[in-house]
């Protein structure tokens, strides 16, 4: 807030974008590391993720302060205000993605000593890989102000949901096969749900980018859906 | 944003608080209704909750617009800025509580035709009742600018976490007893997790109120914890 060097408006916007790119890079890194911690059963790496999440929180606070200061000093209108508020919105989603990576790392810690069911782990890996790819794409879409790229990300979220729904069923089947599988399956279930939610936040960012570039919403309703919450039990 | 009637600053702040109270009341209502829908296996009520959540989203947007307009026009400093940003922060938490109530309602829809295990359902009921009480208290703390009340809410969140941890164990045991219990238990597990997260957002609001009144954070670290994510499986 106490910036003594007077910057131009464009410089301030560029600084905002730079911080968002930094935050996005960190979110990607934590998500990737939480998967590695899970797969390699590496409690040290998992603990690192939990600690590194604080850097994301700090960046969020910095961006928030800059946004307040910009609105107060510049009183931006229309396009500029849309840009600044979009940046703030994206920041909130990235902070939550960091939180979700932290949650996955905590699950990794909890089950580090357990043997992991291979086919289910590969399901988790595929979900994380797609979520990471989507996150990377949407950060590019923001950096390049590319509404079409944002729209593509938005559409692809359905794939993550489909993966989650199928993994959910597999995990339930695995539980039913042997009660001893219930503990680990529950942790993996929550882990998978966390990844599905990373996808939702990425979709939010895609919506923000689209609105920022085109000035209107992608759609009133969005494609995201965890169908397992409405799965009838038979 | 196009307010033609010029209001005093105090009137604008009062309007902001009024909208937050309205949003908070709605969040309480949806959470209560999602529990009723679950207990009475009432799919109609569950659907109502899903639809009503949109009213919370609309209020969030209204508040956000008012906040931007106030910062731009008034360029508030120190205390006033803290108040306005606090309001925005609380709004975000209330919006997420609305989302969580909606998720519980979706679970209620999914298991409306199942017979519900009574002791576990009463565990869920107690969690929701405490979460509702905490939410009511923190909204009062905000309306009255009562930092001590906020602190009390912050401290009591540990009780919701303890309830969740014990319910988590009971649900796992119930699953292990009979594979046919796995489906419904999984839905209840996610439902319980949603309530635990309502508690976390209520704790966030308590922190915001405390900061807003006293000007410093309750603590660097907060009491919330879902211990189940680090529960070792034996």
From TrEMBL, chains A, B:
Pfam families: PhoU. Coiled coil: none annotated. One of its GO terms (cellular component) is cytoplasm. It is found in: Cytoplasm. Keywords: Cytoplasm, Phosphate transport, Transport. Residues 20-107, 124-209 form the PhoU domain. InterPro entries: PhoU, PhoU-like_sf, PhoU_dom. GO terms for biological process: intracellular phosphate ion homeostasis; negative regulation of phosphate metabolic process; phosphate ion transport. Belongs to the PhoU family. Plays a role in the regulation of phosphate uptake. Homodimer. PANTHER family: PHOSPHATE-SPECIFIC TRANSPORT SYSTEM ACCESSORY PROTEIN PHOU. This is Phosphate-specific transport system accessory protein PhoU. It comes from Hyphomicrobium sulfonivorans.
């Amino acid at each position: 807030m106490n910036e003594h060097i007077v910057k131009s408006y464009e410089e301030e916007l560029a600084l905002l974008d730079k911080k968002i790119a930094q935050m996005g890079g960190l979110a990607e890194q934590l998500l990737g590391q939480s998967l590695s911690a899970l797969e390699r059963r590496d409690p040290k790496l998992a603990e690192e993720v939990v600690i590194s999440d604080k850097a994301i929180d700090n960046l969020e606070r910095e961006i928030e302060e800059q946004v307040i200061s910009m609105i107060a000093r510049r009183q931006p209108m229309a396009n500029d205000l849309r840009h600044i508020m979009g940046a703030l919105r994206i920041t909130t989603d990235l902070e939550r993605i960091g939180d979700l990576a932290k949650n996955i790392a905590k699950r990794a810690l909890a089950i580090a000593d357990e043997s992991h069911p291979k086919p289910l782990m590969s399901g988790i890996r595929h979900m994380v890989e797609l979520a990471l790819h989507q996150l990377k794409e949407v950060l590019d879409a923001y950096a390049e102000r590319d509404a079409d790229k944002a729209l593509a990300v938005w559409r692809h979220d359905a794939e993550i949901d489909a993966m989650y729904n199928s993994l959910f069923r597999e995990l339930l089947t695995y539980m039913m096969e042997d009660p001893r599988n219930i503990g680990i399956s529950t942790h993996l279930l929550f882990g998978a749900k966390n990844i599905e939610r990373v996808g939702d936040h990425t979709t939010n960012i895609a919506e923000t980018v689209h609105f920022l570039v085109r000035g209107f919403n992608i759609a009133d309703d969005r494609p995201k859906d965890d169908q397992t919450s409405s799965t009838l039990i038979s």
